[in-house]
Known about the structure:
Blueprint: H1 23-34, H2 41-48, H3 53-67, H4 71-78, H5 81-90, H6 94-107, H7 113-120, H8 125-139, H9 143-150, H10 153-163, H11 175-188, H12 197-206, H13 209-223, H14 227-234, H15 237-251, H16 253-265, H17 272-282, H18 287-298, H19 302-309, H20 312-321
Amino acid sequence: MSQSGYPYPQSCPTVVPVQAFNPGQDAEALRKAMKGFGTDEKTIINVLTKRSNAQRLEIAVQFKTHYGKDLIKELKSELSGNFENTIVALMTPLPQFYAKELHDAISGLGTDEDVLIEVMCTLTNAEIRTIKEAYQKTYHRNLESDLKGDTSGHFKRLMVALCCAGRDETMVTDQQKAAADAQALYNAGEKIWGTDESVFNVILCQRNYAQLGLVFQEYKRISGHDLEKAIKSEFSGNIQEGLLSVVHSIKNKHAFFAKRLHKSMKGLGTHDRDLIRLVVTRCEIDMGDIKKEYKANHKESLADAIKGDCSGDYRKCLLALIGEA
Length: 325
């Protein structure tokens, strides 16, 4: 699965592959950390937060080869709570991890639309295709069918459009087409009584990110305000959230994820599952950039937010992953 961070090729990850990588040695260190009485959590954190997802999977292969045991099962039997959940997430191949998050968002009581929006609105075509394959392989079900079965109305159509993974990714821009698209959005929304949501889906789900940047500028020129304002007045509920997320993630993906992180920790209680997913999936892509946006937009550092909201080995593990250990 690509770790492109598209459309920001110069992204700043906080977890990078370790250079002098010795998976056999790492497997041995983990076995020692779990052998005998008590668990050496510090070693587990030091090894697994300093390796890439691909390297962790290699360690698991070596662990099985050397000791005849499944590393994830061993870790699960030694750890508990959110620390265990974070470590298991780190040990899961990324496409399978995303597939599980989507499956659980769809199959529980009610639907967690925020998770669907976060995943489907921000990934590349290749990433979405890989997740669809992993979903089919793991659950013997079709992701698009499950999305259709669990969502409705305009929001369902947005999810299906994104699931098609048909976005142009050339980054070629055309000012005239941008002006035409902006006019089409204006005509389909603010200009008419009622809204033609299909026009929003086609443009926001198919145009490349650079082209959409021009469309947003043109829209502001035509209407005198941002497209977000129109979406807020024309749509409500999940479809409004979905379309706004598409726009926000295209305008500034790092600020979008910073906001999601903030939402996972503010208010009563922590949405640990969201926090874990965001840290684990972004640490190898652009967590350095997300941290900067977090500080700029939320008046405290991401590290301080985590320190204030989490405790113990769970906190240490998250801080290590965001490069603040």
